[in-house]
Design a protein that fits this description.
By secondary structure, this protein is α/β, with parallel strands linked by helices. It is built from 20 helices and 13 strands. Helix 2 links the parallel strand 2 and strand 3. Helix 12 packs across helix 13. The longest helix has 28 residues.
Length: 499
């Protein structure tokens, strides 16, 4: 069977539209044979997998992110992929019948300098009347740049930049941020021929007020991309300055009245009223102007300047020292003896393998996050004749039985004096493991218990983390740089972004 070219990743909060999307994928003109990963981004709730088993997709998997927003959910999805491309869909779109066939065609025809390919989004609007403010807002998705409602990226590009920035907690700006980082260093983003439909979903009267929380995200964009980020991302300018003027006018008017400065209060109140009236008319004029829409626009236009200004101030403070996003490593390589299992010199007996405390649970946390794992181990006993290669591999199999699967294994069978390029502290095994999985060493962490593990990782261009064992010399610990007292603590550091 031909290897799948892409993995489809769909973050979801359990909306009924998810099933509609999956059935559309299953009912297309060409069968969807690639992996489909649904990421359940609810903090709690019944397992989604049980209700989706009958949708007719051959390779459907549901993983849980536990909440945190679409950026974190998409990251979890692509990290579980092993295909050259990752194709993101939102759970409230519906694919055309030929979407999958056209997707494959889009990906086959892109050039080597292309890192991403965007699908086309249509938003159906009512034909019998003018669209409402919310409908016009949704229609903007059809012309948005780098929108992840339908977007494919090379997995290597995602890994190189650490994926989506999880500091964006909502579906706003996280796609523009990723697009800027990828096009800045890893290739262009083109538009394909495939199409999805994004219906306008029902919302409450106050949705436009809730949307103002996105003003905080704009300050994260400014902090990491500079003041010209809107131009480069082709994002429309907002009304933040006008909102600030209007809301400031209302505040000044209130304090001036309390202090007895009536003329100042009158001028400030006029500023607020004019700003509010201008905003309301800008939203009412293109719409249907029926009673419900007028009511919504008047109420929300009076409150939006205050909400927008509050979230702007909050974002400016929260992101005043924001650093570029790093994300999780794509690969963690572990030394075997003394790091994953207790060190028994020249061990060739699988029955003597004993994991260090908490090793299985720690490794499973990385696997659950979609981080790939490997082992790089010196086995000079095979070169000196103390043990056979068959014994080395039998012990390795036992390690996997106890600790779970690894994506790559590398061991050096040479004696200390053979002068090979693989024995640590040489970087050969680390480099080979990264090449085997097509992972940049700069997105790799090497975890070991002695100085040669750290030296091998550094020589390969990887990050390093030492977990000292009883035999580790104090000088090695001092020169290691990043040290954790246990394997579990090392995994805590990696998952927290400290690597």
């Amino acid at each position: 069977m031909t290897q799948a070219r892409t993995t489809i990743v769909i973050p979801s909060i359990g909306r009924p539209s998810l099933r509609v999307l999956l059935e559309a994928l299953a009912g297309g003109t060409e069968s969807v044979t690639c992996p489909v990963v649904v990421v359940d981004d609810r903090a709690q709730g019944a397992d989604l997998a049980a209700g989706l088993a009958d949708v007719g997709l051959a390779d459907l998997r549901v993983v849980r992110s536990g909440g945190g927003g679409p950026a974190r959910a998409r990251n979890l999805g692509w990290r579980h992929s092993r295909t050259p491309w990752v194709s993101f869909l939102d759970d409230d779109v519906v694919t055309d019948r030929d979407w999958y066939a056209t997707l494959l065609s889009d990906l086959r025809t892109v050039g080597p300098g292309v890192a991403g390919n965007q699908g086309q989004v249509r938003v159906p609007l009512p034909g019998h009347r003018r669209p409402t403010d919310w409908e016009r807002s949704t229609a903007g998705l059809a012309t948005a740049t780098w929108i992840t409602a339908d977007m494919s990226y090379r997995r290597s590009a995602l890994a190189a930049v650490g994926g989506f920035d999880e500091r964006f907690p909502r579906a706003f700006r996280e796609d523009a941020d990723l697009g800027l980082r990828i096009t800045g260093s890893h290739g262009s983003i083109t538009t394909g021929q495939r199409r999805v439909t994004h219906p306008v979903r029902a919302v409450g009267d106050w949705v436009s007020l809730r949307q103002q929380s996105g003003n905080a995200d704009d300050f994260l964009m400014r902090a990491v991309h500079g003041t010209d980020w809107r131009t480069r991302a082709r994002a429309p300018r907002g009304r933040r300055v006008r909102h600030a003027v209007a809301s400031t006018g209302a505040v000044v008017a209130s304090f001036s009245l309390l202090a007895g400065y009536r003329r100042t209060a009158a001028v400030a109140m006029s500023t607020w009223l004019l700003g509010t009236a201008e905003l309301a008319w800008a939203r009412i004029q293109p719409g249907p102007r029926d009673r419900d829409e007028l009511r919504r626009m008047l109420l929300t236009s009076a409150a939006i300047p205050f909400a927008a200004t509050w979230h702007s101030v909050r974002g400016a403070w929260a992101h005043r020292r924001a650093e570029p996003w790093r994300g999780l490593p794509d690969l963690v390589l572990f030394d075997r003896d003394g790091t994953l299992v207790h060190d028994i010199p020249y061990n060739g007996d699988p029955g003597l393998v004993v994991p260090v405390d908490g090793a299985r649970q720690a490794l499973d946390r990385l696997r659950a996050a979609g981080v790939r794992l490997g082992v790089v181990s010196n086995q000079s006993g095979a070169g000196s004749g103390r043990i056979t290669l068959e014994q080395v591999e039998a012990v390795n199999r036992r390690v996997e039985e106890l600790l779970g699967p690894f994506d790559v294994w590398r061991y050096c069978p040479h004696d200390r004096d053979e002068g090979c390029s693989c024995r640590k502290p040489a970087p050969g095994m680390v480099q080979d493991a990264c090449a085997d999985l097509d992972v940049d060493p700069s997105r790799t962490v090497v975890v070991g218990d002695i100085g040669s593990d750290v030296e091998a990782g550094r020589a390969a261009g990887a990050h390093t983390l030492m977990v000292p064992a009883p035999a580790t010399r104090s000088l090695e610990v001092k020169s290691a740089g990043h040290v954790a007292i246990t394997l579990a603590a090392a995994i805590d550091d990696i998952l927290a972004g400290h690597w």
